[in-house]
């Protein structure tokens, strides 16, 4: 937020009739993007790989690459792209106010009293059992309900409890008879796992015996909760699919560029071009599930969303028919 407000174009929020603070927005987004993942995950995705030089700057084997005051590493180009996209989509003042509201959010008892808010009393007792559990012959008595709902990943009690923990427990007392699930992510640097442990500890101090606390592993940082490692539709685990190395991909792209530059494609008969494009589209459609899984692992977005996006990105049968019709010929199957 401070980086954004330091942009001269912010003008204390009165920028709507002039240039918006694009530089501040871009830098804010780059900083935020780093916090959404973890160092090990950035290293797995990008390592120390350098960006590929454009065609105008061919790399000579006999001459080492000269560093420049611009993005040299792939991770830098990725962050630059994220910043550029963000600064053109969102309003700076809206981001500042939402961020400020999040910073001021406080559930400790003194903070609630200062705002003139009186927390409601706790439930009189545990909530009723869910219908699926209540219908079971071995359903427990309500007094034993907390034994079913109180699970936890073992973590040691804090050696130096934060001074605000009793106040937080007092603020969370209305939840003392409400089942609560607290999840933390071990690689999260945006909301460190210690904060989730504090929430679980405060709830228990408040008298809640139905607190379930777990920590998620993985290297995806704060975005871990967005990643479908297991498809809820069929229970299938999503795993890394190694189809080709980065070098293989770069060589394929380079070869394709060379073919187009040499004019080979334009000299190819229409029937052959249509055959190639049709077969390519068919192959892409066949690989949609695999491509969606790889995109999920790469971006952290839901696999269902990636399935739809990848499918839209591929050339569908309608497009194939258009290609065939434009070529004025039948495609060999």
Automatic annotation (TrEMBL):
<dbReference type="GO" id="GO:0006535">
    <property type="term" value="P:cysteine biosynthetic process from serine"/>
</dbReference>
<dbReference type="GO" id="GO:0009092">
    <property type="term" value="P:homoserine metabolic process"/>
</dbReference>
<dbReference type="InterPro" id="IPR016161">
    <property type="entry name" value="Ald_DH/histidinol_DH"/>
</dbReference>
<dbReference type="Pfam" id="PF00171">
    <property type="entry name" value="Aldedh"/>
</dbReference>
<dbReference type="InterPro" id="IPR008220">
    <property type="entry name" value="HAT_MetX-like"/>
</dbReference>
<feature type="region of interest" description="Disordered">
    <location>
        <begin position="118"/>
        <end position="137"/>
    </location>
</feature>
<dbReference type="InterPro" id="IPR029058">
    <property type="entry name" value="AB_hydrolase_fold"/>
</dbReference>
<protein>
    <recommendedName>
        <fullName>Aldehyde dehydrogenase domain-containing protein</fullName>
    </recommendedName>
</protein>
<dbReference type="InterPro" id="IPR016162">
    <property type="entry name" value="Ald_DH_N"/>
</dbReference>
<feature type="domain" description="Aldehyde dehydrogenase">
    <location>
        <begin position="227"/>
        <end position="313"/>
    </location>
</feature>
<dbReference type="GO" id="GO:0009001">
    <property type="term" value="F:serine O-acetyltransferase activity"/>
</dbReference>
<dbReference type="GO" id="GO:0009086">
    <property type="term" value="P:methionine biosynthetic process"/>
</dbReference>
<feature type="compositionally biased region" description="Pro residues">
    <location>
        <begin position="118"/>
        <end position="131"/>
    </location>
</feature>
<dbReference type="GO" id="GO:0005739">
    <property type="term" value="C:mitochondrion"/>
</dbReference>
<dbReference type="GO" id="GO:0004414">
    <property type="term" value="F:homoserine O-acetyltransferase activity"/>
</dbReference>
<dbReference type="GO" id="GO:0016491">
    <property type="term" value="F:oxidoreductase activity"/>
</dbReference>
<dbReference type="InterPro" id="IPR015590">
    <property type="entry name" value="Aldehyde_DH_dom"/>
</dbReference>
